[in-house]
Specification:
- The complex is a heterodimer of chains A (432) and B (559).
- Chain A is of the alpha/beta class.
- Chain A has one domain: 3-Layer(aba) Sandwich (Alkaline Phosphatase, subunit A), CATH 3.40.720.10.
- Chain A is built from twelve helices and 18 strands.
- Chain B is mainly alpha-helical and 559 residues long.
- In chain B, the strands form four sheets. Chain B has a three-stranded antiparallel beta sheet. A two-stranded antiparallel sheet of chain B has the order 4-5. A two-stranded antiparallel sheet of chain B has the order 6-7.
- Chain B is globular, with a radius of gyration of 26 Å.
- Chains A and B meet through β8, α6 and α7 of A and α12, α20, α24, α25 and α26 of B.
Chain lengths: 432, 559
């Protein structure tokens, strides 16, 4: 069952039902923040939004064009508000490129979807001894403890499956949600009275078992349930209600007005970006929004021109503009990337194949310096000129923007020390 | 706390302990079993000498560590545990009633035998080993799947149904070739060959799972904590270098795409005899196929996996046996003799070397008989103790990092399949509201898939720490399976309870028996009575009770 959280399940409503019965005290065990006016999460907290382009986008046609080269393809570059040129089909984003920088010299060696995805998310190459956490889990782990009032999860994954929390544990696993804000199994508002009864009974059984002295495990179970109930009854759940946005904002992101349902061809990625803005506004420190369909081995130019780029352009530019308008951009870092880039050489199906040797990622916001092209590729887009970068450099830059110390170390299950961002330094031009 | 002089007493036999006696010692005996201290030994009814020896050795470690064991688990606690561990689900309500009522002093050993012959034994262990081998994915044979879960299941199902000797099973896995649905054993290899990596993943996972050693650290450097050198990893790896994967694709008319038709594991010649690896200082060295001190002919035409398979079947060094013994002990207790169970080696000596050796030798002598191994473990005294513990053995707390002493059972999280099957057993959830067997089965598979997505993806290799997430809790609280399980519809568990004869108290007892596999105590009954009074109608109250029981920590924990 997937239901958006309706107004009815808010904290006050729940409390009123509870007060009616004698079940109030035992059920209270499950509700930590028992205040009619729950403390609001502090404004302007740091956050990161990862725009994940699943399939490996042809960055040579989007961010680092090579007109005049035989690898140049069908698109022409246009000027932007920043110091660089980008694809003519990203005209709206061109208007916000003063806020974003392009890292043109990514060189990451992993051209396999699974390996590339792992590498770009964790900063580590896949390894049989350990499962590394995706960076969203790292941020959740580092920042969640300072946001006690946050009742919704601290790492949300929109429209995708992200990667796991590895040795940081399930508490920091991504919380999956669809772009329209629907959460699986979130419960129904007409059940609040019953929920109170049930929680009362549950509280008794759990306490009984905890008191039978079998170790810490039963307690840990109860804590997770407490968090889940907090979630179900929290007013902060409104952050997921994308449908509540004013029509004009929705249209800015390419989302149809009126109602939560989305038809075919509607901009789900745009909707996901809008949801990300809402979540970040509510204090969620890391949101990942997936956009698929980038594995363009065939017919790359038509697909980009007619389908991918219009959606991307609308959504991305809207997100930056919207965040800026609300004064959130200076606290919100944005990262755009896929698992690798695509070959400079155009293949016989008018497509491009996997290519990790030289490609682009985009980073901005959060106080990082925008408007620049950092690093470069040669005139045919094949070799790197100057400094090359790996995902650890990107995540180290994000860590810097989020105020997470770069010497933070976690411990894997085998007791091995693991540096965040694999010990890579941040990109100097971004941190200014 | 025992007096200091007792460290000498640990050298003396149990009988002498009683004679030298003191109140402290007598009370320790009383804590261990209800029988007289002298012949002492707790027994499940099994007379095997091996079990008595294991019991004695473990008791000695309690004395050596100055702790007293917890009491023997009561019938309901034990029955639930042994069902979960052997057949993968909680006991049906009737089984609990029958077991509790039985006065047969050998009833516990008989239950162990009965469960070993239960068809769910095969089902459970097939699931356990398929999960170990290929994880929990590949459930719906997708267009791109290069591993057949069906094939892997078939292989293990046959192995467990026929109780095939474990060394034969391991040999079949390592030497496997052919079509992934015809020779299911190849799927272990295929699952480790998903990413092209020169057999690195295959080397690491094979040695870990079947030899109980973790050599992957030595892929890049000498082992940090023991004498193993870097060439050891590459020696194992060179054995696997002749393994190739062949994917046959076909055109699928419906989707218009090329999809996987079948996959095969085949043999291919190596380019050269040695495998080269790089030391950290940049020096390049060769490695040759070697298993412990047994050299395998590196000539290119020699089938290395076949040679390796023969060596593993002979198992001169008893590594295959030891790995299985340790893992099996860990399955039943939550902790093996090393932490983790598959990281044995000079750097990680076993906590109970004599027990380990005794079980390993016996396992070999039995012909690698897996059922027999389980029979021994489940009949030990330690396996029959309660999971409650207190001041007298609170140092025995491996969850807190201490070495396990097995003076009480350790609680384990249910595996996702156990949780799922237990929910079904408790409430027949898939049957209520459904008239059709096939539809019910399909429903079951769908729910299982959803459960696995939410519960089964935890990379946590220890099942003894609860690492639950909010989505799991939400699913248990509001998800379709629990909703169906607590339904009041005709044919549902609750509907049957409601319409059966008997008082409300009887019915509540049945609900407890069906879910927690025990009778409710007085306080619980009176709390429920309160709930009934404050509830608008009785049916809803029953529903709330059942909901709470299914969501409780006590349900989800194997204790």
């Amino acid at each position: 069952m997937t239901f958006p959280i309706p107004d009815g399940m808010g904290r006050r409503h729940f409390m009123r039902h509870m007060a009616a019965g004698a079940t109030i005290l035992p059920a209270m065990q499950f509700i930590n923040h028992v205040k009619a006016n729950a403390q609001t999460v502090r404004k302007n907290q740091k956050a990161c939004i990862l725009l994940w382009m699943s399939g490996g986008p042809p960055t040579i046609d989007i961010w680092d064009l090579k007109p005049g080269s035989k690898n140049g393809g069908e698109f022409q570059p246009i000027s932007t508000k920043g110091d660089m040129q980008i694809s003519e089909h990203m005209s709206k984003t061109a208007g916000v490129m003063d806020e974003l920088s392009i890292v043109r010299s990514m060189s990451t060696r992993e051209a396999d979807h699974g390996r590339g995805r792992y590498f770009m998310h964790t900063s580590y190459v896949p390894n049989p001894t350990v499962i590394h956490p995706t960076f969203g889990s790292v941020v959740s782990h580092e920042l969640a403890s300072s946001r006690k009032e946050l009742e919704i999860p601290s790492f949300v994954s929109v429209s995708g499956s992200s990667m796991g929390p590895g040795y940081l544990g399930m508490t920091h696993a991504p919380f999956m949600v669809q772009s329209n804000g629907q959460i699986r199994n979130a419960g129904q508002s007409n059940e609040t009275g019953r929920l109170g009864q049930r929680l009362a009974m549950l509280g008794e059984i759990e306490s009984n078992f905890i008191n039978s002295n079998r170790g810490e495990f039963p307690k840990a179970h109860k804590e997770v349930y407490q968090k889940a109930v907090n979630l179900m009854t929290s007013d902060q759940m409104r952050a997921f209600e994308v449908a509540q946005e004013p029509d004009q904002i929705k249209q800015m992101y390419g989302v149809g007005g009126g109602g939560a349902g989305m038809g075919m061809g509607a901009n789900r990625f745009g909707e996901g970006c809008l949801l990300a803005r809402r979540l970040v506004e509510s204090g969620v420190p890391f949101v990942e929004v997936d956009m698929g369909g980038w594995d363009l081995h065939n017919d790359v130019f038509n697909t980009l021109r007619d389908q991918r780029l219009p959606q991307l352009d609308t959504a991305m530019s809207a997100l930056v503009a919207d965040l800026k308008m609300r004064g959130l951009l200076e606290h919100t870092t944005i990262v755009w990337m896929g698992e690798f880039g695509r070959t400079p050489r155009i293949n016989q199906n008018v497509g491009r194949d996997h290519w990790a040797a030289s490609w682009s990622a985009v980073v901005g916001g959060g106080g990082l310096k925008g408007g620049q092209a950092i690093g470069a590729t040669d005139k045919d887009g094949i070799g790197i000129e100057g400094q090359s970068y790996v995902p650890g450099n990107i995540w180290a830059s994000v860590a810097h923007a989020l105020g997470i110390p770069l010497d933070t170390v976690h411990t894997s299950k085998r007791g091995r020390p693991m540096k965040i961002a694999n010990g890579q330094p941040p990109i100097a031009e971004l941190i200014g | 706390m025992m007096k200091p002089a007792t460290h000498l007493i640990s050298q003396i036999q149990t009988r002498m302990l009683v004679l030298c006696g003191g109140l402290a010692i007598l009370s320790a005996m009383a804590g261990v079993s209800a029988h007289a201290a002298d012949e002492a030994e707790f027994s499940t009814g099994s007379n095997e000498v091996l079990i008595k020896e294991v019991n004695q050795l473990i008791r000695r470690s309690w004395d050596d560590n100055l702790i007293k064991p917890s009491e023997v688990a009561d019938d309901t606690e034990w029955l639930r545990r042994v069902y979960l561990d052997v057949v993968g689900h909680i006991p049906p309500m009737e089984a609990v009633k029958e077991f509790v009522a039985s006065k047969d002093p050998a009833k516990r050993s008989k239950i162990v035998d009965q469960l070993l012959d239960d068809p769910d034994y095969v089902r459970n262990w097939t699931t356990v080993w398929t999960n170990h081998s290929i994880g929990r994915g590949f459930r719906n044979r997708g267009d791109r799947d290069e591993v057949s879960r069906l094939g892997m299941d078939k292989f293990y199902r046959e192995a467990f149904a026929r109780n095939r000797p474990w060394n034969d099973v391991v040999k079949d896995i390592v030497t496997a070739e052919g079509n992934f649905e015809e020779n299911g054993a190849v799927n272990f290899i295929l699952a480790q060959m998903e990413m092209p990596d020169e057999g690195v993943q295959l080397t690491a996972d094979f040695t870990r799972l079947f030899l109980g050693i973790q050599v992957q650290c030595t892929q890049c450097h000498d082992h940090p904590f023991n004498d193993w050198k870097q060439d050891q990893f590459w020696s194992y790896n060179s054995i696997f270098r002749q393994t190739a994967k062949d994917i046959q694709r076909k055109y699928d008319e419906d989707s218009g795409r090329m999809v996987v038709d079948f996959v095969e594991v085949t043999w291919r010649n190596v380019d050269q005899e040695e495998v080269f690896f790089e030391r950290r200082n940049g020096e390049v060295r060769p490695a040759y196929p070697v298993f412990n001190s047994h050299k395998i002919d590196p000539a290119k035409h020699v089938d290395r996996r076949k040679e390796f398979g023969d060596l593993l079947q002979k198992d001169d060094d008893k590594m295959v046996a030891a790995a299985m013994v340790n893992r099996m002990w860990g399955h039943f207790f939550g902790y093996g003799f090393t932490k983790p169970v598959d990281d044995m080696g000079p750097h990680n000596p076993p906590s109970h070397p004599e027990v380990m050796e005794l079980l390993t030798n016996s396992f070999v002598e039995s012909g690698y008989d897996v059922k027999q191994l389980i029979r021994w473990i489940a009949n030990t005294e330690a396996y029959n103790l309660t999971s409650k513990f207190g001041k007298e053995n609170d140092i025995d707390n491996p969850a807190a990092g201490e070495i396990p002493l097995f003076s009480h059972m350790y609680v384990k999280a249910m595996e996702v399949e156990q949780l799922y099957d237990s929910l079904i057993i408790a409430t027949n959830a898939h049957k209520s509201g459904s008239r059709n067997f096939d539809a019910a089965e399909q429903q079951r598979q769908r729910w299982l898939g959803e459960f696995i997505t939410l519960f089964g993806d935890d990379e946590n290799d220890s099942s003894t720490s609860f690492n639950g997430s909010i989505p799991q809790a939400l699913m248990m609280m509001n998800g379709p399976l629990v909703t169906q399980a607590t339904s009041l519809d005709r044919g549902s568990f609750l509907a049957e309870i409601a319409s059966s004869p008997g008082s409300d108290v009887d019915k509540v007892k049945d609900i407890y028996l069906a879910t927690l596999s025990r009778y409710p105590n007085g306080r619980e009954l009176s709390n429920i009575a309160k709930l009934f009074r404050s509830s608008p109608n009785k049916a809803l109250a029953y529903q709330d009770v059942l909901w709470a029981l299914l969501n409780s920590n006590e349900f989800i924990v194997n204790h």
